[in-house]
Amino acid sequence: MTLAEDLFAEGEPEREFDPGIAGRLPRKRVAGGALIRDHAGRVLFVVPGYKPLLDIPGGMAEADESPLAACRREVQEEIGLDLDIGRLLVVDWVPAHGVWPDGVMFVFDGGQLDERSAAALQPTDPELRGLRFLAFDDAVPLLRPSMARRIRAALDALDENQPCYTEFGRKQ
Q1: Which part of the chain is the Nudix hydrolase domain (predicted)?
Q2: I need a surface site. Which of 66, 98, 111, 121 has the fewest CB within 10 A?
Q3: CA angle (130, 35, 139) in 5-degree steps
Q4: Which CATH number is 154's domain given?
């Protein structure tokens, strides 16, 4: 079934018992990122031009877009690959920080690129200054601590063949 068919099968939307309550409910940021590795097992990082630290390919979900669809779209936009994004590795809740509200970050398995594909990879998004494949330990100083914890959890999830839930990158 398609999403449209599933929504149709749900029937009419539930009416608000208390008019206006839906508009007062909190909103969260939602993002989807891909853990992509090269033939040597190094992780692919993007070098953003709009913030000082590295990130993994992916980004914020748009209105009415799933985290997986956002991940696929952002990977295509950022590195020009239409990857078969795989299974869920991590769901990470991130608390509000500064101007940013809290959010839920999803990390999916982006697979492993062969040597030729990895070497030919170039950023396709003007917001990026570059791409880097790095071993996890080499990447840690170039990441926010919470991102390092999230990526460590994603690598562990790959090894354990089990997704995990984290809060600010810390396993629960």
Answers
A1: 26-159
A2: 98
A3: 55
A4: 3.90.79.10
